[in-house]
Design brief:
The protein has 15 helices and 16 strands. With 391 residues, it is an alpha/beta fold. The protein has an eight-stranded parallel β-sheet. The protein has a three-stranded antiparallel β-sheet with strand order 1-2-3. Strands 7-8-9 form a three-stranded antiparallel β-sheet. Helix 10 packs antiparallel against helix 15 (355-366).
């Protein structure tokens, strides 16, 4: 079973250091999880993720339920055996994907009827079904089934989603059969301070092994996301891990950590890699731009990743423009290295008592607008529908 140890708190913020232990891995927190919706992070092998420093990744129950099917995965020995990943796995219950991707979604207290975004087939998922799926997949950490209300929405609709999320969380707990998986509850509440706090209190009273903040990074402003974290995190237990779902630009990681978040996941590093947007210590490099056609420099001279050690911007620009599949792989490796190293440096700053200085230096080096000036929206699938190949 999972164990979480809180090791250090920052004196000048709510940032904290911890250690998450599962049967398969030890994860130093704050930590970022790469996303492999269908099993792998696109284009990468398990050894790639391990060499990049990751010990925990996310798979998605909704996508694996539809293809290849949770029963097939179970027959193949579960996700670890099926994918060859020896580290820890967290599975999202699929609630967010159902509400953002599925066609003709109908919600009642009993469950959700929806049509697959792949072939239009009709499915009915209850909290009990969601737990059955996640137990069949066999992840180390599983998420309760929740209702993510699409925004904007009336207060009454958000309030009903908070009520239903609590009801479903209770049913998820009651339907558990496996004792070797940690179950996290998911806080909802839209952009309402009071409902966020209420949802957090509701779930805390149920006694989960960890708690997630859901329903954010769906188009709200950065200021709104930060306000919801400020309303939610103080209501969560200090001795349990806190997970901000679907959030993953570097500035989002900094702001989440400063508010007491321990875990993050997002498709940003891999999706941006596939579209030629590369993260560096000085900001973004958009490798498809013509200015890099003769650029002999690595992506980032300060980066220690194997891509920067070997390849020039000119070569990566060439690979991208000729649509060579290697471009996506190399770009993704670089971006994930950046995220892994970024979290390592962030943890070091907390340990040394210099987290506020680390935060200030980040914004200076990126010449970035204040976080409040931007909108968020990088969930795996959000209120704006995306084609399956973009996931």
């Amino acid at each position: 079973m999972m164990q979480f140890q809180l090791r250090q708190r920052d004196r000048r913020s709510n940032a904290r250091l911890g250690q998450l232990r599962t049967a398969r891995a030890v994860i130093e927190t704050p930590a970022f999880m790469p996303v492999g919706s269908l099993g792998p992070v696109k284009g990468l092998e398990p050894d790639d993720l391990h060499s990049l420093g990751f010990r925990l990744m996310l798979n998605n129950a909704y996508h694996l339920y539809l293809r290849p099917g949770h029963k097939i995965v179970a027959d193949m020995g579960g996700l670890h055996s099926f994918t060859g990943w020896s580290g820890a796995i967290l599975t999202d219950s699929g609630g967010f994907q159902i509400f953002s991707l599925a066609r003709l979604c109908t919600v009642t207290d009993e469950g959700v009827t929806f049509q697959s975004h792949i072939d239009g087939s009709t499915h009915f998922i209850t909290p009990e079904t969601a737990i059955e799926i996640e137990e069949s997949l066999g992840a180390d950490i599983i998420m309760a089934f929740d209702q993510c209300v699409a925004l904007p929405a009336s207060r009454e609709a958000v309030q009903d989603g908070v009520r239903r999320t609590k009801l479903w969380a209770e049913r998820c707990q009651a339907s558990r059969r496996r004792t070797d998986q940690a179950l996290f509850g998911i806080v909802q509440g839209g952009l309402d301070h009071d409902l966020r706090a209420q949802s957090a209190r509701d779930l805390t009273a149920l006694g989960f092994e960890g708690y997630a903040v859901g329903g954010l990074s769906v188009g709200e402003s950065k200021a709104e996301m930060h306000a919801m974290l400020d309303a939610t995190v103080p209501e969560l237990p200090e001795d349990k891990p806190r997970y901000l779902m679907g959030v993953g630009h570097p500035e989002d990681l900094i702001e989440g950590v400063s508010r007491g978040i321990d875990l993050f996941d997002c498709v940003v590093p891999s999706r941006h890699g596939r579209t030629g947007s590369l993260f560096t210590t000085g900001g973004r490099v958009v490798i498809k731009q013509a200015q890099y056609v003769r650029d002999e420099r690595p992506i980032d001279p300060d980066c220690g990743c194997p891509v920067c050690a070997r390849y020039s911007r000119a070569y990566l620009h060439h690979l991208y423009t000729v649509k060579e599949m290697l471009a996506s792989r190399l770009n993704t490796i670089h971006n994930l290295w950046y995220f892994s190293d970024f979290m390592r440096r962030l943890r070091t700053a907390i340990a040394q008592g210099s987290f506020p200085e680390f935060r200030d230096a980040f914004y200076r080096s990126h010449a970035q607008e204040p976080p409040e000036a931007k909108a968020s929206g990088d969930r795996e699938a959000g209120t704006t529908r995306r084609m399956p190949q973009d996931i």
